[in-house]
Amino acid sequence: MSAAPATPIRVLLADDQHLVRTGFRIILEVEDDITVVGEAADGARAVTMARATRPDVVLMDVEMPGMDGLEATRRITDDGPDAPAVLILTTFDRDDYLFTALRAGASGFLLKNGTPEELIEAIRVLARGDGLLAPEITRRVISTFVRPGDPAGTAHRGADAEAALGELTPREREVLVLLAAGSSNAEIATAMVLGEATVKTHVSRVLAKLGLRDRVQAVVFAYENGVVRPGG
After folding, report:
1. Considering only CA atoms, which of 103, 108, 88 is closest in space to residue 142?
2. How far apart are the C-alpha atoms of 115 and 143, rounded to whole Å?
3. φ, ψ for residue 184 (rounded to 5)?
4. How confident is the model over 170-209, as pLDDT tens digits?
5. All domains in the chain, ordered by first residue
6. Residue of 141 and 176 predicted with greater confidence
7. pLDDT averaged over the chain?
8. The HTH luxR-type domain covers which part of the protein (predicted)?
9. Which of 92, 69, 218, 226 is nearest to 146 (CA)?
10. 69 vs 75, 154, 157, 187, CA distance in Å?
11. How far apart are CA 96 and CA 92, in angstroms?
12. Could you report the per-residue pLDDT of 66-80, keeping only the tens digit for each?
């Protein structure tokens, strides 16, 4: 008896250009493990459709009429850890867009001049629950822009964040510090003299206790809440 096929990754496309959305759909629907569940031409529609179709990943343009992709990302991810992962797609290679997208809750950032293979792999990475950005890029942007106590905060900061941090064990807090440094599971295992399977369990518990989706959000959380400091 053959095994049942895996459930395809459900993707929502949000871009104000019809031809761009059509191109993405053609690229993605060739893949057996990806299905496009809808399209949105503006941010407000993307929010509505994300809540209606419950995709695994939203491909989000930045500049759209009305509500832009950054605000739409914030509203989508405000639905909690079960909200879809958001992959920001843009033609602009700008740190301020990248940082704003991260603070809004995006799990990845990809330039539109990338290849179809890069897009497909990015979707698969986010669907697995991983962040897309290289740790060094994340650290550079966060170190440049985040300052503890900055009033332009997110839902990750405040009494709820302090309470969540209080739930971490000393070992889990050490894992969070190493995550914020961009360490891989193997590097964390070496630093803490643990097996990689044990580290993976600790990482999962840290994300769950803090209500975070992936390692990218853990980096943002750690900097915004003073667990680590820029340049430290």
Report:
1. 103
2. 29
3. -80, 170
4. 999 999 999 887 788 888 999 999 998 999 899 999 998 9
5. 9-133 (3.40.50.2300), 149-224 (3.40.50.2300)
6. 176
7. 84
8. 161-226
9. 226
10. 10, 17, 22, 34
11. 10
12. 999 999 999 999 887
How large is the C-alpha radius of gyration of the chain? 18
C-alpha atoms less than 13 angstroms from C-alpha of 216 in its C-beta half-sphere: 26
Residue 232: both structure tokens together: 């430290």
Half-sphere exposure of 180 (CA within 13 A, CB side): 23
Side-chain-facing half-sphere of 145: CA atoms under 13 Å: 20
Joined tokens for residue 196: 């990689």
Sign of CA dihedral 9, 87, 115, 135: negative
Cα–Cα distance measured from residue 229 to residue 42, given in angstroms and rounded to the nearest whole number: 36
Q: Are 73 and 85 in contact, with CB atoms under 8 Å apart?
A: no
Task: Collapse the DSSP code of 45 into the 3-class scheme (helix H, G, I; strand E, B; otherwise coil) and give the result.
Answer: helix
